[in-house]
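Q: My labmate handed me this sequence with no annotations at all. I'd like to see what the chain might look like in three dimensions before we decide whether it's worth expressing. Could you predict it?
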Amino acid sequence: MKKKQVFIGFALIILMAAFGVFQYAKDYKLALHLVIGLSIGYVMQRSRFGFAGGIRKIYLTGDSSLTKALMFLFSITLLVTAAIHYGSYVNGGDVFYRAVKSGAAVIPGSDYVEPANLATIIGGIMFGIGMMLGGGCASGTLTDAGEGEGRGLIVLFFFSTGALWGAHDMPWWTQSIFFKIKKQLYLPDAFGFVGTIILSLLGYLAIYIIAKKYEDKRRKENTLKVEKYADWEKEVSQAREYKFFSKETYHKFFVKRWSYYTGAVFIMIMFVTILVTTGTSWGVTAVFAHWAAWFYQALGVVDVSNWGWFAGRMDAVNGGFLNHPGSMRNMGIIIGALIAPLLAGHFSFKKNFKLRDVLFYAIGGLLMGYGARIALGCNVGALYSGLSNMSLSGWVFMPSLTIGGILGVKLAQKLRVTI
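A: Here is what I predict for the chain of 419 residues:
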């Protein structure tokens, strides 16, 4: 353990607390989303939880632990969000796309009930390929950047650029056949709340069983590679005489790796916190388009004020990086993912990739950014938020993302991309 890093980690927490107070004085939402982002980043790094790994890990190693944990995450989140939706529904709330027409109260998170169309499939496949070339999804890229992966910083830049490119092209996509052939369905409209919960849980259970059977198959073939924790991440033996203020206690609280299931529970809590405090759900990639807009406009390369996608968003663009709640949340994820290894005393900047890999990281980032725009979300917004808010689009995006992910893994293997 590098003790200097521990002190830097705690100093960074104090700095973030002071910055949070400063942001709170401007708008409580800025401070709230900063704290949520810090928490998500810390949890994802501490537990090594990620959405892209749910495909890559099981395909490459046969280890289904993360895939099963994702099904657990989707299940527990669904149960909570369904209760929130139902509570709003019985009090006169309606799904967003109808409420804006009728004037009814909006069911929290139902703005993520997006149309399922051909662009959902195309964008999902593009995103899946991109996240394997780039080595992570949207939230995973933020986490990678924070924890010192040089690759993550490269991917993040091109991810944001791809998101801006996709935003530029959205008027064409929305007028094309890829958007016009669609089905926008809030699943409780077709199956009721109880029916939707049962069908969704059965779907997650089926994926869980398939993943477990595939792991058993790989075990029988002797091709299973179960992930092993580094020695410093493992539980340490307790001293004969227990002392709260001890290195053993510190190790338990700040160093020991959390399980995927621990990570899933904390991520669900953060997801629900966003839902109940904002009335909307967790998304990541729309903010990337804002980041790129701020950057490229500052350079004088583009002017997004007359872009269709930015209509209604110019206040956020003109307000700047530090005055957007979503921006604070994404920035918080990066810093939270930095704080975790610092407190553990094991932070390192990793640049173990070749110059040729930068090209593939750039392509991966562009594919993810563009794919997320046309699919109306990434594996947080389109998948996790889509499924949890009971949208048909989430169930269309999932197999598309999986197909793209498998294609991306094969492509990354063939091209020998360093991930």
